[in-house]
């Protein structure tokens, strides 16, 4: 589990549907706020963990639909699968642990005797998870009878009901909470336990996350009935658990501030980006800010003025070079001039920009390389470039940076259809 050299400053463990992702937010603004906050302040020394009830198939579908960041760790299928990194390398030790006192064939055979249960799709049936739908009014009695039936067969199982309709049967040692406890134990063994951990959820299958010792917890404002009931019965007097006043990702940002876990002001919350003031600018923050300016210019959300373009030129080198993903070399100042003429081209259209997997390395006393995936979401779909930016510190302002070189390459399968509109 070679993720960070030392303990993570913060590990966020978040459910996805209705927690990180808000389906009542068609422009994904709260998620994009979180993305900008994470990549500018946390990516370099913290861990992002997605803990979802979705199978790998449905998880990948969601990533194609929503502007989700790439997590360091993914917990799927209600805590029965743990994978690492972008390639989603499985944790074999976790799989072996779950095999104890588990027999999937017996679970399927015995559960088929309950007509109240209807199987979910084949993609949701996993090696250590059997999933059904059940009517809300029948759930309690079915769970009790089913548990007794499986126990009589010598199985040690856990039955989780969530979302007002989903019923999952898992090995007793599985679940989102147990998967988190397993990860923390692995970090402890390496002497790298995160300094702070924040668990985030909205439904019944997230309750276990809030039961792990020394973990902060946030139930987003739109939390479902079964989780609110758990909170009333078990967590109301726990100062480490809050019911946020904000929905979904906005509630996660609120919790970061409430518990004092680090910065909770996203670059997207800044109205005047030209005059943004920070005690300590970082290369990560600088590139996030640059591309946010780019988005707002095309959406006509900043003033269309000569001064605005002059300000943009001040943060790039006069002799700076852009290697366009087409392979053409361009002047950075010339690219800004061309870009200036397109003010408002994306106004009232679907157009958002976000950065993912931002990583920084200092290559000299005054120079940094920043690498990231730069995404654009438009009416035509998604485009993405693998991007490398060289920044130098300004001679008279050593705490500020200037962009010297930008090199972009299309990500496989995500090249823009109209490549003339891709500026940076």
From TrEMBL:
Record-level GO BP terms: sucrose biosynthetic process
Known EC number: 3.1.3.24
Names of required cofactors: Mg(2+)
Protein's UniProt keywords contain Magnesium: yes
InterPro entries: HAD-like_sf, HAD-SF_hydro_IIB, HAD_sf, NTF2-like_dom_sf, SPP-like_dom, SPP_C, Sucrose_Phosphatase, Sucrose_phosphatase_pln/cyn
Functional pathway: Glycan biosynthesis; sucrose biosynthesis; sucrose from D-fructose 6-phosphate and UDP-alpha-D-glucose: step 2/2
Domain Sucrose phosphatase-like: 9-260
UniProt keyword list: Hydrolase, Magnesium
Enzyme class: hydrolase
An MF annotation (GO) of this entry: magnesium ion binding
Transmembrane segments: none
Domain Sucrose-phosphatase C-terminal: 285-411
Magnesium as UniProt keyword: yes
Reactions this protein catalyses: sucrose 6(F)-phosphate + H2O = sucrose + phosphate
Family that this chain belongs to: Belongs to the sucrose phosphatase family.
Assembly behavior: Homodimer.
Function: Catalyzes the final step of sucrose synthesis.
Protein name from the UniProt record: Sucrose-phosphatase
Species assigned in the record: Vanilla planifolia (Vanilla)
